[in-house]
Amino acid sequence: MKRGFFLLLGVLALNTSIFAKTSVLVDFNLLKADGNGDPEATSDASSDELTQNMATLVDYSGIAGTNFTEDDKKIMRTSLAPANWEVKLNASAASVVNKTYSFTKEWHTKYVSVLKNSDSTDDSTDDMTVLGVRIHFPESNFNSWALIQPPFEIPAYEDVWTDESGKLKYELETDELGNPIYDRSKLAKEDKGSKFIGKGVVRNVGVLKSLELSVYGCQFKNAISVILKDHNEVVTEIQMPQYLDFDGWRRITWTNPNYVANVTDRDLYVVPMYPVSEPYLKLQGFRVYRQGDQLGGDFITYLKDVVITYDEALNTREAPIDHEEAWGILTDRREEAKKREFSKIGQLEILRYLEKEKMDK
């Protein structure tokens, strides 16, 4: 039987630029609202009830406690559907009026060739889903910015228990209270920790070579950046090299000036192998900057996707021993990280739920 092990190549991977890999970090066309948050009712939901993306649905009712009714817990779900994303202004710009008129929405537009990935053969003219953003900047002449972020920090290790419609893929046993028992040993390998891959997370990322952002400009001279977070909790903000002062769709590319394309020019050294965790990048959000001498008030833009090109951090080679199968250290670490991520999401969403409940009374 063939076994594999992971070889970490340190800061720089042993490959040349022609072997750099390209992956979609996020594509809002995959985040279209296609359900109402109830896996059993998605097929019966009318179009105006489609508020959640069922493939990225997160149910946080499990940590809600006993002070909530079963009806309360049924609506404690959220997803990465575009309308759930948030716009936050910097402190000096966050007036009541500016916050009220700064939000996101899901929008649909015909396929545009400039947005086609270089390796795509899709020539369809179907509607594609994009993230529509409205920001109401101050009209006074001082600098300001707006952060566009997902409704929760995107988990790096969430398992896939459901299909794209939100229905369970596996037959699960239940406990004495009738709650399903999520036994990870029942999961297929490809479903372990991969729920948000391509929907905000890319694994096995070494050196970043370039980043592409598909964005719609309305001729405002505002700047935009992409905010990333890695497996070491380090947040990096990449300023895109072009203002949004153009009309229509454009694919803006940032190229890493420190990327060394020729392998013979790289500084290479030996580092420990197993059990080194697999590096990843996740999307933290976007930031739009408006200079004080530029037009304030309403600003509109649309975002389609983010694509990254990078050297892989880990190489798979043939070996007589599968270390992970023998020890399971990385699995244990990922499970601990998943629990921390889920707890953080749940606590924040419950606070939001309580606040909304107070406002509705």
Question: Which key features would you list for this structure?
Answer:
361 residues; alpha+beta; six-stranded antiparallel beta sheet; 4 helices; 16 strands; globular; disordered N terminus
Overview of the molecule:
13% of the residues lie in helices and 32% in strands. It is an alpha+beta fold and 361 residues long. Strands 2, 6, 7, 10, 13 and 15 form a six-stranded antiparallel beta sheet that branches. Strand 11 and strand 12 (235-239) form a beta hairpin. It is globular and about 60 Å long. The N and C termini lie far apart (63 Å).
Question: In terms of topology, how is this protein built?
Answer:
Layout: E1 4-8, E2 21-27, E3 58-59, H1 70-74, E4 77-78, E5 86-89, H2 96-100, E6 103-110, E7 127-137, E8 144-149, E9 201-203, E10 205-218, E11 223-230, E12 235-239, E13 247-255, E14 280-290, E15 297-312, E16 314-318, H3 323-327, H4 329-360
Antiparallel strand pairs: 1-16, 2-15, 3-4, 5-8, 6-7, 7-15, 8-14, 9-14, 10-13, 10-15, 11-12, 11-14
Quickly describe the structure.
The chain has 361 residues and is α+β, with helices and mostly antiparallel strands. The chain has helices at residues 70-74, 96-100, 323-327, 329-360, and strands spanning 4-8, 21-27, 58-59, 77-78, 86-89, 103-110, 127-137, 144-149, 201-203, 205-218, 223-230, 235-239, 247-255, 280-290, 297-312, 314-318.
**Overall mean pLDDT:** 82
First and last CA, distance: 63 Å
Please work out how many helical segments DSSP would assign: 4
Uncertain parts: 1-18, 118-122
The major β-sheet equals:
6 strands, antiparallel
Secondary-structure element pattern, one letter each: EEEHEEHEEEEEEEEEEEHH
What structural class is derived from the secondary structure elements? alpha+beta
